[in-house]
Amino acid sequence: MTKSVRIQSVDILRGITIIAMILVNNPGSWSHVYAPLLHAEWHGLTPTDLVFPFFLFIVGISIFYAYKSKTASKSTYKKITIRSLKLIGLGLFLKVFTPFFPFVISWEAIRFPGVLQRIGVVFFITAVLYLNCNWKVLLGVTISILIGYWLLLGFTPLPNGIEPTFERAANNWCNYVDLKLFGTHMWKPDYDPEGFLSTISSIATCLIGVLVAKILDSGILQKHIVLFVLGGFLLALGYLFSIWFPINKALWSSSFVLVSAGYATLVLAVIYVIVDVKQWHFGGVFKQVGMNAITIYFLSGFIAKCFYKIPLGNSTIHSWLYQTIYVYDWMPPKLSSLLYALTVVAFYVGLGHFLYRKKIFIKV
């Protein structure tokens, strides 16, 4: 593949993933949400659980193309480090930001882990591994992470001889480590879905993306067939693994890595056939959003926080908009909540279109 050729399906999948992130993060009311737009309570899998691993999978593909012609030099490491710190910094900013003056920060209430923080850490480690390892070593690292994580969480006793479990309680390694590292700076007292150990396992998701990119960049003629076979294999292996290590997004279990990567590979294969093989015009708006993915995601979190905090009348901007425009006695509450979320999505799709037309591409 020449450098001038761009895999359109990757940009489209990135845009679809960001739009899905915004959709599930911005309901009109968290009390009225359709089940597929919520995370599984603990074990299990919903469409919403696939959104974040899809993005990390795409990060892996992007790393392959961004650094395949780079060397492991000081300047390359500097760029990787700066980008990683930017992502982590943006994530922490969203946690501490308040739209009011003076800016009083309650340090006890700050959550240190987060989505952008995880993206930053996973990007850094995966990029460094990619620069220094061939595909066989990367495959070995991925397998080692999946097996090692399972052995740690399922078979290694906690301090004082406490037997580990995969349940949402204090007797699992993820929560034990997070409590030691973050204390009260977690999403919930008993776990954090972007905690330390689960971030390590999520590196495997990104590495699978790197390996899939190698297939896309190879000289194989029927790449889509290879992707379909690989996606099916990952799904089968993941569901089989779930017998011993349940599918769990919060723990980012090894079976979850395999299953989510399997679905991501299959979806990518479908889009690849439509766009890159058949050359059909599809997904223009998704591509436009995908070209400014992190910027649009960050703005969606920033604006949402303002809407939830800034008062308007006797409520907030968010509540006023939702109650005034979307809530009616004759409309099911979940539908009202969904329509609000779809309006938010439409706004950011429009923003993505505007930035694309103006050739504004903000790299983080």
TrEMBL record:
Pfam families linked to this entry: HGSNAT_cat (PF07786)
Segments crossing the lipid bilayer: 12-30, 50-67, 87-109, 115-131, 138-158, 195-213, 225-245, 251-277, 289-310, 338-356
Natural source organism: Neotamlana nanhaiensis
Record-annotated Heparan-alpha-glucosaminide N-acetyltransferase catalytic domain positions: 6-152
UniProtKB keywords: Membrane, Transferase, Transmembrane, Transmembrane helix
Name assigned to this protein: Heparan-alpha-glucosaminide N-acetyltransferase
Alphabetized InterPro entries for the sequence: HGSNAT_cat
One Gene Ontology term of the molecular function aspect: transferase activity
Domain of life: Bacteria
